[in-house]
Amino acid sequence: MSILANKDTYVVIQGGVAGVNAARRMAEFCYLIKRSLNVLAFVYPPDAGKTHEIPYGSGLVAVPIYKTVAEATKHHPQINTSLVYIGADRAMKGGMEALDDPHIKVVSMITEGVPEKDAKILGRHATKLGKVFNGPSSIGIVSAGSCRLGVIGGAFDNLVLSKLYREGSFGVITKSGGLSNEIIWICSQFADGITTAIGIGGDAYPGTDYVSYLEMFENDPQTKAVVIVGEMGGDLEERAAEWYGAKKRRVKLMAVVSGFCQESLPKGMKFGHAGAKEGLKGEGSARSKSDALKKAGAIVPATFGALGPAIKEAYQELLKSGQVKAPIEPAVLPKLPKTVEEAMKADEVMVAPLIRTTISDDRGDEPCYDGYPASELINKGYEIPHVIGLLWDKRLISKPEAEIVKRIMMLSADHGPCVSGALGTIIAACAGIGLSQSVAAGLIMIGPRFGGAVTDAGRYFKHAVDNRMSVDEFLAYMKKNVGPVPGIGHRVKSLRNPDKRVKELVGYVKSLNIKTPCLDFALEVEKITSVKKDNLILNVDGTMAAVLVDIGFPVDSLNGFFILSRTIGLIGHWVDQKRQDSRLIRLFDYLVNYAAPKRREVPPLK
Amino acid sequence: MAKVLEGPGMGLMKKWGITVPNYVVVTSVDELTKLGQANEWLKKSKLVVKAHEALGSRFKLGLVKVDLDLKGAEAATKEMIGRQVGSITVSQVIVSEMIPHKEEYYCAVKSTREGTDILVANCGGVEVESNWDRVKRLALEVGQQPSEDALEKLAKDAGFTGSLVKKMAEFAGKMFTCFDSEDAQYLEVNPVVLREQDSELIALDAVTLLDGDAKFRHPDWNFAFAAEFGRAYSKNETEVMAVDSKIKGSVKFIEIPGGDTAMLPAGGGASVYYSDAVVARGGKLANYAEYSGDPPDWAVEVLTDKVCSLPGIKNIIVGGAIANFTDVKKTFGGIINGFRKAKSEGKLKGVKIWVRRGGPREKEGLDAMRALKDEGFDINVFDRNTPLTDIVDKALQTK
C-alpha cells in the first residue's frame, strides 16, 4: 500500500516546459514498473489542441494539451490528480482551477516563489473541499512500485538504485527536494526502502503539513515507520511531535532537523528555504523542534549522517519482531533504452555517417574553421578573406593574398540598379517580398551572361597556361570548342573607355611582384582581341578569375567571389527599397514590343 | 521575507489611512535645507533625526537624535551621513516631526499558519517587551476580515477604555487592511501614540516585513529591500543576488567574516545540514552558499569565484544530496571552471576541497572533479555511498 499516489492515480499537468520534463521523468518510472503512462493530459492554453510526445521505453506517447482543467477531466475522467507547474504570478489561479474540478482529489504545486498569502488561501480552500493541496515548492510525491508525481526520485539509474520499483516499509516526508532523494536512497540501503515519499516544500506555510500525512501513514498498514526531514522555522515539527506524543501510534517516527548552525551565527543571519526563519521569541529553532520530537518519543539522531544507522536499527527490529519480511528483489528489471548518442558513447553501436565535412565544426564552445577557433583568428588579426580561404580552399592565405581578395570583393560589391541581379532584387522588394527571397531573386540571375563568367574565364586561362598555349593557339582552341572567350569583352567599356576597376586591380597585383602567369596571359589575349574589336577587352570577371587562379583558388570556387560580393549590393538594394517604402512596379506598355499575333477568335474545341 | 526601512514602511501605512508623523528621507544636509524652505512643519516642529539604514541599536550608536530644531537637525544629519558602522555606511537619514504625547501603545499584525493575528497592547515602547502578557490577540482565519465588534472587543480586552476603544479598534483595522493589501508578513508599530493636540492615534515607528515573492503584483513597491541581518549586503553578495535574479534555479551567497570553512553545497535543504555539520564539528563557517534548481553552469561559476575569494579559508565543502533534476556534470563544470580561474589568480593555496554528490550524470561530474587532482588541486571526491555530511567530518579532522 501507499498513501496519496498509487496505481489508480492519473494525472493532468498544468504548465509548459517544466511540466513536460516532469512527464518524461514520470514516463521513465512508469516504464520501470511496467504501467502505462499515468500522465493523461496537459493544460496549457497557448498550445491547446496540440499534443506533447513523451518518450516511453523506445516509443513515444502522444499526450493531448487542453485549454482548461475541466476540458482535460471531461475527456479523461480517470484523472484524479493535478501537478501545477505554472509561474508564481498565475499559480494561485491554476491551483484553484484544479481544486474546484470535481474529478481532482490531489493537487501538488511545484512552483517556487508563490506568495505566502496565495499558498494559505489554496491550502484553506483544499481543506474546505476535503482535498489535498501539497506544496508549493514541492519536488513531488513518489509511491514505490506504483506512482510517481513530478521529478522526485531523479534520474532512471537512481530509481533503480533506490529500489523504487517495489514497496518498502518506510514513509518519508521532507521539506527539501534534494534531501527527499537522499532519504529515499538511505531507506533503500539501510532498510527495505520506502512506501511513499512526499516533498511538502520548503515554504513557510505548506498546504499540507506533516500531521496530515502522518495520519495517512498511520492508516497505511504497509508503512511501519516514517522519517521526517525537518528544518528550523515555523512550527510544523512541533505539531508533528505533538501528534506523535498525543497517544500510542502504530508507526515509528524518526526525524532530523536542520538549523543548529543558527546558534553560532551572527544574530539575525538566516538562510535556507523561505520557511526557514525563527519565530520572534526563539520558537521554531532547530533545538526546540528536536527537543519536542525527542520528548514525544521520536527517534532523533544528532546529525543527518547518523540517520542511516538509526534507520537500519529500526528496520532490524521490525525484521526481528516479524512485522516485516525481507523483500524479494525482481530477477530482471526493465532497462531504459539508450539514446543513439548514449549507446555510441558506450561503444555499443556504430552508425554510418550521413554526410562528411572537412571544413568546419561548431560542436565545441565556438565554431572552428578548418580547425582554427574563430575567436583566435579574430584575436590574431585575421580577417574575412582568411575565413574565405579556410572555408573555400582549406588554407590560411597570406596577407597580400587576403588584400587582393578584399579588393576584388570591394570592386564587385555592386554595379548599380540596372544590372540583372540588382533589378531582380529591386522588383522583388517592390512586390513586398522578404530579404532572403529578394536577394535570391537577384542571385539566380548570376549565370553565363551576368557575373557568372568568372569560373569559366579562370578555367580556360588556366587551361591555356597549364598547356603552355600561345595566344593564337588559345584563340583557335576557344573558337573551335567554346565560342566567345569568357572574361573578354564588355557591353559598354572599350579600349577608349577602359574599365577603371580592371586597371586598379591589375595595377595593385603587379605592384606586389608576385608571379601571375594567368593574368599575364589574359593581358596578352586582350592585346590581340581588342585590336579586332575595341570592346573585346579583359573585363572585370576575367581579371578577377586570372588573379584568383594565380593566388591558388580552385577554379570551381571562382564564381563564389562574385556571388558573395554582389550579395552585399543586393542586400543594399533590398534595404534601400524597404526604407523608401517603394510601391509595386510593373513595366510600361511602351517598353514592350508586342509581337504576339493580333486578337483572333478561338476555334471550337475538337 | 523582505525587510523594508522605516521611510517606505511608513509610506505604505499612510497609503492605507494610518496617520504617521510628517517625515522626509534625505541623503545630504543640502537636501534637508532645501526641504526646510518648502515645508512649514520642518521649521515649526521639534524634530527627530535617525540613520535610515538596516541597523540595530541605533540609540546606543548615537544614530538617533531627538528634540531638535531645523538647525539642530541639519547638524545631526551632517554628523550621521557617511558614518561607518561595521560594513554599513550611513547614506540616508530620516527626519520626522516629534509628536508630543503622554500615552504609548502597541499594535502589530502577523502571519500565522491559520491566517492572521492582530496584536494590541495598552502599553508601548520598551514597556511592552517586559509585559508581553498585556498583549492581546485577535486570531483571524485565512481570508477572514476582522469585524468592527471583534476589533473593539480586542481593544477592550487590552484595557482600552472610553473613546480610545473605538480609536484603537479603527487603528488596528487599518493596520490589518495595510497588512492584507500589501502582502505583508509582519507589521509592527511601537509605539502607537496619542497626539496631545487632537487626541489622534499616530504610528511613530514602523517595522515592515513584506513578502518579496508578491512583488509582481505591487508595481508601486519602488523601494529596495534591506538586508535582514543588521548589515548591508557586500559587493560579492550583491553580485550573486544579481545573477540569482536572472537565472532559472537559484544561487545564494552570504559572507560570515572570520570563518575558515567555505561552503559550496547544493540545495536549500542540504546546505543547512552541511552548515550544521561544520558547527557541530567545531568548525567556523566562512559563508553560506547554495545552488539549486539546475542553474546554468556560468551562474555556479560566479558563485564558485566568490567562494574561492573568501579570505583565510582552509577547506571548501562542495557537498550535495542526490539531485532530482540538477545536472551534476553541468553544475560541476561551472564549479571546475571557477576553481581553475581561482587557481590561475593565485587563490586556493593550501585549500583542501571536499566533494560529495549524487544525481543525474553523477559519474561524469564526479570523474571530472577527480581529474582536478592531476592539475594540482588538493581535492577529495566521494560519491553517494559516503553519507551526506561525512566529508565535513573528514575535512575538519585533517586540520
What is this entry, summarized?
The complex is a heterodimer of chains A (606) and B (399). In chain A, 42% of the residues lie in helices and 12% in strands.
Separation of termini of chain A? 84 Å
Determine Rg of chain B (CA atoms, Å): 26 Å
- Give the integer mean of the pLDDT values of chain B: 92
Provide the spatial order of strands within the biggest beta sheet of chain A: 3-4-2-1-5-6-7
Largest sheet of chain B at a glance? Answer: 7 strands, antiparallel
User: Total strand count of chain A, please?
Assistant: 16
CATH class category of the largest domain in chain A = Alpha Beta
Greatest interface: A-B, 70 and 59 residues
Average pLDDT of chain A: 93
Percent of residues of chain A in beta strands?
5-15%
Give the count of helical stretches of chain B.
Answer: 13
Strand content of chain B: 15-25%
* CATH architect. name of the largest domain in chain A: 3-Layer(aba) Sandwich
- As for the number of domains of chain B, it is 3
Global geometry of chain A: elongated
Q: Considering the protein shown, what is the CATH homologous superfamily of the largest domain in chain A?
A: Succinyl-CoA synthetase domains
Annotated CATH homologous superfamily of the largest domain in chain B:
Succinyl-CoA synthetase domains
Oligomer: heterodimer
Explain what this protein looks like in three dimensions.
The complex is a heterodimer of chains A (606) and B (399). Chain A has 606 residues and is an alpha/beta fold. Chain A has three domains: 11-263 and 272-320, Succinyl-CoA synthetase domains (Rossmann fold, 3-Layer(aba) Sandwich); 360-412, no CATH class; 420-580, no CATH class. Helix content of chain A is 42%, strand content 12%. Chain A contains 22 helices and 16 strands. In chain A, the strands form three sheets. Chain A has a seven-stranded mixed beta sheet with strand order 3-4-2-1-5-6-7, with helices on both faces. In chain A, strands 9-8-11-10-12-13 form a six-stranded mixed beta sheet, sandwiched between helices. In chain A, helix 8 (236-246) runs parallel beside helix 9. The longest helix of chain A is centred in the C-terminal third of the chain and has 23 residues, at 558-580. The model of chain A has no long low-confidence stretch (mean pLDDT 93). Chain B has 399 residues and is α+β, with helices and mostly antiparallel strands. Chain B folds into three domains: 22-97, ATP-grasp fold, A domain (Dna Ligase, domain 1), CATH 3.30.1490.20; 101-217, ATP-grasp fold, B domain (D-amino Acid Aminotransferase, Chain A, domain 1, 2-Layer Sandwich), CATH 3.30.470.20; 235-397, Succinyl-CoA synthetase domains (Rossmann fold). Helix content of chain B is 35%, strand content 25%. Chain B has helices spanning 6-15, 29-38, 40-44, 70-80, 126-130, 148-157, 163-181, 235-246, 270-280, 297-308, 328-344, 362-370, 390-397, and strands at residues 2-4, 23-26, 47-51, 64-68, 84-85, 88-89, 93-97, 101-111, 115-121, 136-141, 184-195, 201-203, 207-210, 250-255, 261-263, 287-292, 315-318, 352-356, 378-382. In chain B, strands 1, 8, 9, 10, 11, 12 and 13 form a seven-stranded antiparallel beta sheet that branches. In chain B, strands 2-7-3-4 form a four-stranded antiparallel beta sheet, with helices on one face. In chain B, helix 12 links the parallel strand 18 (352-356) and strand 19. In chain B, helix 10 runs parallel beside helix 11 (328-344). Classes of the chains: A alpha/beta (606), B alpha+beta (399). At the A-B interface, helix 4 and helix 6 of A face helix 9 and strand 16 of B.
